[in-house]
Design a protein that fits this description.
mainly beta; Maltoporin, Chain A; 5-stranded mixed sheet; 11 helices; 48% strand; disordered N terminus
């Protein structure tokens, strides 16, 4: 499809926040200073009051409704998660319009996006802009937040930067998962699900007292599903589910003022993921076919068929524990949360996505994280109250990865280089044999080493922050809030890579100059930059002009095969391999209760995220440290720190070792109203991130760049209507008007003034829930239907390889229209029987697209998940 750029919308629109959560339905509620402080505390209690559908938060010893709290947040209740069969955060986006979740080539590669901002997918060196907290513990990578958690009390999605309520800064927003603590009354539940694709889900939990002061809980879950996609030539399924999780908790409560909650959990994912289809078959398709290879056809994109030479596997182990201590004395409450977690992620992937044995990637990653948080909160009767906290973060990351050359990679590249397919197949001497002879390489060595590359990356990250807020209420209903966060973040990193292919070790410009001077008796043979620079300037210019002219130097056309050149390891004499950032961010807010049912607020907040490291083969020196000569020449490179230190390698280029910090500012005004049977919430915002860390796949690597400035204006609107006791309607809509205010250095060129793609203008989440009660027996029949819509939008701003050749004109688009439904019979004896369907109408759309690996002109993409449905039996006791 072709892109037609619409003018930037005016910002004279009212804007919305989330509606107040109802017991029967998807809860969309405005955030809360209180609710979020308690998201990581003990038993966060919510209850229905006589005032109707109002949730009251009482865990901070200050009773306050979500309707009274002046921050934008969407809340999804545990009951909604059960009814809609939402099992993890990937499905959460269907009921939360400000949130998008993107899953890529493995089960563990997911990106969380709020208000159009999000990153961190597929590169462990990049901290996500959206932070995920589970029971107050920061999960630093998305793979650590994907397990199925039973006993979820609610999930809160906080929109915009959060720094004064969380020690760990999140520049775009927060997903906070709150689970139920152990209870002093014996109880539990078991659940079994069976659905299409042989889906089996088993869940269970049990809780109760050990003594009068000690309670326990134990829960677990298991998911298995056949893949809904076929690897045709291997007769294997992919996009399956195979994961389980267990968790144990102890709650010590010797007296009402002192509690200790200890938790330990373990989860594992072992899946075959993910289905990739062809959208455009480029010129490389002929080479694939000539060698007997197969690939999925563009016309069959939604047939969920693939052709691979190896089954892609992904194993994720995620485990850890935390201890949360709370002590109250008078008006003060002291809270400590100590946590240690480990994440192990390993995958093997066929990166060319064809049945040819071209290349496979193997990656092993480990993340070890220790966090410590302390907080003091007050509950004075007077006009002043405060929160003061400290947070410490210590994380180590290691990654060992490699690209394995396939048995057909040399033949494939020979044909792409122009060789006759018959000559290649019959083993006749061809282009690469000639190059090996010319450069003195062993015969059959180009693209014939066991490995193409091997990498070892490591990052040690230490950070601390001091944060807090002060609330001043001079008169009843009028509250002024000032908050701040000072963060100091340091990272030490080491990057090393071995590139084994001999062809990548040669710069064709410099090689031409060496050969030309060797053949000229009047010139010395040039084999180094110093020798070239010593030549007279006219001679340099003449040699360089010939060496960079494709008509004179025929080798230049082969530069495309040098996509894994030698790698300059870090640290080195120029690059110390470290970043150090510190920042003070703050919040200013005023909130006023006009009448008990209507509240308004206005706020200005700033946010921050520290530098991120490019843990990929595309990690290259900054342009301030190195500038290559024409066509990557070292001989003709200007002076730079790396050149002057003698560190330059053949075909070295500048790029991004790391991206600098993100700085966020957001203006927001909001209105919240809670009337009989109706809630209505609006929030209007103008949010800007300077230095947004953009990660783009280039077809052979990943480029990490700082956008100069990216902004989004918009609104979030939500309402809940309960026209009668059994019937509840919810409606939430997010409108986003994004803009690259400044992004001259993107991999697609200057995007300044362009509309950032992948951000739907409108996102809608609506639901209807009807609960029919059978007399006074307590039996209920609950029917629910929800609708999730994302307006038609460009998937991205272009692809570095595919769209560059087309003048950046042909852009793929997506529109989402998902309908989910469920019907549950809940009996008063605790037995529940139900049925569900997700994506009932089998809506099909492209989730994202990317350049084919080493296949210029080929575009690959991920299709959406097909319809799933099943039956549920649940028993609560």
């Amino acid at each position: 499809m072709f892109r037609g750029r619409a003018p930037r919308k005016g910002f004279a629109l009212l804007a919305g926040a989330a509606a107040v959560a109802l017991v029967p339905g998807a809860a969309l509620a405005q955030d809360q200073e209180v609710a979020d402080l308690d998201a990581d505390e003990m038993p966060l209690e919510t209850e229905q009051q006589d005032r109707g559908n109002v949730i009251v938060v009482t865990a901070t010893k200050r009773e306050q409704t979500l309707q009274e709290t002046p921050i934008s947040v969407s809340v999804t209740s545990g009951e909604t998660l059960e009814q809609a069969q939402i099992r993890d955060v990937l499905d959460l986006q269907t009921v939360t319009p400000s949130l998008r979740v993107s899953q890529l080539q493995t089960s563990s590669a997911s990106t969380f996006i709020i208000r159009g901002f999000g990153n961190g997918d597929n590169n462990l060196g990049i901290e996500p802009s959206v932070g995920v907290f589970i029971d107050g513990v920061f999960r630093s990578r998305s793979a650590a937040a994907l397990s199925d958690l039973p006993n979820v009390q609610r999930i809160e999605v906080l929109n915009g930067p959060q720094s004064t309520l969380f020690g760990k800064n999140a520049s775009a927003g927060v997903i906070s998962v709150v689970t139920r603590p152990p209870q002093f009354e014996f109880g539990g539940s078991v659940e079994a699900v069976y659905g299409n694709f042989d889906t089996v889900v088993l869940k269970g939990d049990i809780t109760g007292p050990i003594t009068d002061t000690v309670a326990f809980s134990l829960d677990g879950s298991y998911q298995r599903r056949d893949g809904y996609a076929d690897i045709v030539n291997l007769d294997e399924k992919q996009n399956d589910r195979n994961r389980y999780a267990v968790r144990g908790q102890l709650l010590f409560e010797p007296n009402p003022d002192f509690t200790i909650r200890a938790m330990a959990d373990y989860s594992k994912i072992d899946e075959v993921c993910c289905q990739v289809g062809t959208l455009v078959a480029g010129p490389a398709a002929a080479a694939i076919t000539a060698l007997g290879g197969q690939f999925s056809l563009p016309s069959d994109f939604f047939e969920y068929e693939a052709f691979l030479n190896q089954v892609p596997t992904n194993e994720v182990e995620n485990y850890g524990g935390s201890v949360q201590i709370e002590y109250s004395t008078g008006p003060l409450t002291f809270t400590s949360i100590t946590a240690y977690r480990e994440l192990r992620n390993a995958f093997t992937s066929d990166i060319d996505f064809t049945s040819l044995d071209v290349a496979n990637e193997v990656r092993d990653q480990a993340v070890d994280t220790f966090t410590q948080e302390f907080r003091i909160t007050s509950d004075f009767d007077g006009p002043l109250n405060f929160l003061l906290g400290g947070f410490y973060f210590d994380e180590s990351i290691t990654q060992d990865s490699r690209i394995v050359n396939g048995s057909q990679i040399r033949d494939f590249f020979e044909i792409l280089g122009g060789a006759n397919p018959v000559a290649v197949i019959t083993g006749q001497p061809t282009l690469f044999n000639g190059l090996e002879a010319a450069f003195g390489f062993p015969q059959e060595s180009i693209f014939n080493t066991p490995l193409l590359t091997q990498e070892n990356f490591a990052v040690d990250n230490k950070a601390y922050s001091i944060f807090g807020t002060i609330d001043f209420e001079p008169i009843d209903g009028l509250v002024f809030t000032v908050g701040g966060n000072y963060t100091d973040d340091s990272k030490d990193f080491s990057l090393s890579q071995t590139s084994f292919d001999p062809l990548a070790q040669v710069n064709f410009v410099d090689a031409f100059i060496t050969q030309a001077t060797a053949a000229n008796p009047g010139l010395p043979t040039v084999t180094s930059r110093a020798q070239f620079q010593a030549l007279p300037a006219p001679v340099q210019q003449s040699l360089l002009a010939a060496a960079t002219n494709p008509g004179v130097n025929p080798l230049l056309g082969l530069a495309a095969f040098q996509f894994q050149p030698p790698f300059l390891n870090v640290p080195n004499a120029v690059e110390p391999g470290e970043t150090n950032d510190d920042k003070f961010t703050y919040l200013l807010r005023v909130a006023y209760q006009i009448i008990p049912e209507v509240n308004v607020y206005a706020s200005y907040a700033t946010g921050f995220k520290a530098s991120s490291i490019n843990l990929s083969r595309d990690s290259r020196p900054l342009s301030t440290d190195f500038v290559a000569g024409p066509r990557g020449s070292t001989f003709a490179a200007p002076d730079s720190p790396i050149i002057n230190a003698g560190l330059a390698l053949p075909n070295l280029s500048s790029g991004s070792r790391f991206a600098g910090p993100e700085d966020t500012t957001v203006y927001e005004i909001g209105l919240k109203a809670q009337l009989d049977g109706v809630s209505f919430n609006l929030a209007l915002f103008d949010q800007t991130i300077e230095g947004f860390q953009s990660l783009a796949f280039t077809g052979t690597g990943f480029a990490l760049r700082n956008a100069g400035e990216q902004s989004v204006k918009g609104f979030e609107l939500s309402s809940t209507i309960q026209p009668a006791d059994p019937l509840v309607f919810t409606f939430a809509m997010t409108y986003l008007d994004p803009l690259f205010d400044s992004f001259p250095g993107s991999v697609l060129g200057d995007l300044t003034g362009e509309t950032p793609a992948g951000i739907p203008e409108f996102a809608i989440a609506a639901s209807a829930t009807y609960t029919h009660e059978f007399g006074v027996s307590g039996n209920r029949l609950i029917g629910r239907i929800d609708y999730n819509h994302e307006s038609n939008t460009d998937i991205n701003n272009g692809l570095p390889t595919f769209n560059a050749a087309l003048g950046n004109t042909q852009i793929f688009r997506r529109e989402v229209n998902l309908v989910n439904t469920s019907l549950t019979l809940a009996l008063d004896n605790g037995l529940e029987v139900g049925a569900y369907a997700r994506n009932l109408l089998n809506d099909q759309f492209i989730t994202t697209v990317f350049d084919g690996v080493a296949q210029a002109g080929t575009v690959l993409g991920y299709p959406s998940q097909p319809r799933t449905y099943g039956g549920v039996v649940r028993f609560k006791f």
